[in-house]
Amino acid sequence: MKPNIHPDYQVVAFHDTAADSYFIIGSTIKSSRTVEVDGKTYPYVPIDVSSDSHPFYTGKQKTVTTDGRVAQFNRRFKSLSSGKSEA
């Protein structure tokens, strides 16, 4: 690796504000704010969504009951394809 071209890698505290949980992860993101977590001080980065608050990961995701465009097409033109004879 070339010297002096890579960003500094450090341990950062990401705060999911929706679920009020912290993730301590290595990152190259820069932050002027700090927070103390478990007795240690880390750079602080607030985030809106993480695996703790996203509906897909929490099991609260709603399923859409409407068919997609392909299913609507197949249902609409199903009768036309059944009367075809193959050569």
UniProtKB/TrEMBL annotation:
Entry keyword Cell cycle: no
Alphabetized PROSITE patterns for the sequence:
RIBOSOMAL_L31
Family, per entry: Belongs to the bacterial ribosomal protein bL31 family. Type B subfamily.
Keyword Ribonucleoprotein in record: yes
Summary of subunit composition and partner proteins: Part of the 50S ribosomal subunit.
This protein's species is: Pseudoalteromonas aliena
Gene name, per UniProt, is rpmE2
The alphabetized UniProt keywords are: Ribonucleoprotein, Ribosomal protein
| Entry protein name | Large ribosomal subunit protein bL31B
One GO MF term attached to the UniProt entry:
structural constituent of ribosome
Q: Which Pfam families match?
A: Ribosomal_L31 (PF01197)
Q: Which HAMAP family match?
A: Ribosomal_bL31_2
GO terms for biological process, alphabetical: translation
Q: Gene3D superfamilies per the record?
A: Ribosomal protein L31
- Identify the InterPro entries for this entry: Ribosomal_bL28/bL31-like_sf, Ribosomal_bL31, Ribosomal_bL31_B, Ribosomal_bL31_sf
